[in-house]
């Protein structure tokens, strides 16, 4: 990797520097738009005591769910437990610290962290367990709670196309949390389906500018369906 060229040749190089105790911000929603190969590399490296920030924790045996198998995650900030029995079991057994966070609030925590905004007020969660212990302010007759922004040591992101300068496009709903996650990591790593030359991407279609991206790698993807329903 030299100058503006953000490409790396291997997943080992892509996740170089990850250590025990780090905070990882991961894009994706369910199994849509998840950086599955970067997650697999974290599992291979065996990093422990991780704090993971993601909408959910994959499914049993795939996505972020694989990091639960060897107890690599000690804390997760997420919106729901989802279709993951192991995640549910570890949460109920208090083997993992789960901070449930409304989806919009979680997205804004990432966005604010990337924008250098330390905290923000939101009405979401006021008067519920989400708001317990948090500062409350009243604006125009409505109550709001103070939520702190989130940043991570690494952000792992799944894109569709990118150029070697790290400018990234996402495909349809696979965009989800990825653009916000990409801004919030000290080191942002993006895996994509295709890398093109600078100038081949229409500037108006670029979702994440290369200024946010540190490393980019082209991979192949399984693209599982989280819940398949067929006719009898």
TrEMBL record:
GO terms for molecular function: CoA-transferase activity. PROSITE patterns: COA_TRANSF_1. Keywords: Transferase. InterPro entries: 3-oxoacid_CoA-transf_A, CoA_trans_fam_I, CoA_transf_BS, NagB/RpiA_transferase-like. It comes from the Bacteria. Belongs to the 3-oxoacid CoA-transferase subunit A family. PANTHER family: ACETATE COA-TRANSFERASE SUBUNIT ALPHA (PTHR13707:SF60), KETOACID-COENZYME A TRANSFERASE (PTHR13707). This is Succinyl-CoA--3-ketoacid-CoA transferase.
């Amino acid at each position: 990797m030299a100058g503006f060229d953000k490409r790396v040749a291997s997943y080992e190089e892509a996740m170089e520097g990850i250590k025990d105790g780090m905070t990882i911000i991961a894009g994706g929603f369910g199994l849509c738009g998840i950086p599955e190969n970067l997650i697999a590399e974290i599992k291979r490296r065996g990093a422990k005591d991780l704090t993971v920030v993601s909408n959910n924790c994959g499914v049993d045996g795939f996505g972020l769910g694989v990091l639960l198998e060897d107890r690599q995650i000690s804390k997760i900030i997420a919106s729901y437990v989802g279709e993951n029995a192991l995640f549910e079991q570890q949460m109920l057994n208090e083997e993992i610290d789960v901070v449930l966070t409304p989806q919009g609030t979680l997205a804004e925590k990432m966005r604010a962290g990337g924008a250098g905004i330390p905290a923000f007020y939101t009405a979401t969660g006021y008067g519920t367990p989400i708001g317990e212990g948090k500062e409350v302010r009243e604006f125009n007759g409505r109550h709001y709670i103070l939520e702190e922004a989130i940043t991570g040591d690494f952000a792992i992101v799944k894109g569709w196309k990118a150029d070697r300068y790290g400018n990234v496009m996402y495909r349809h709903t696979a965009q989800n949390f990825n653009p916000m996650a990409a801004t919030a990591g000290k080191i942002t790593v993006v895996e994509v389906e295709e890398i093109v030359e600078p100038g081949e991407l229409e500037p108006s279609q670029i979702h994440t500018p290369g200024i946010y991206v540190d490393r980019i790698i082209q991979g192949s993807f399984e693209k599982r369906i989280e819940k398949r329903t067929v006719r009898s």
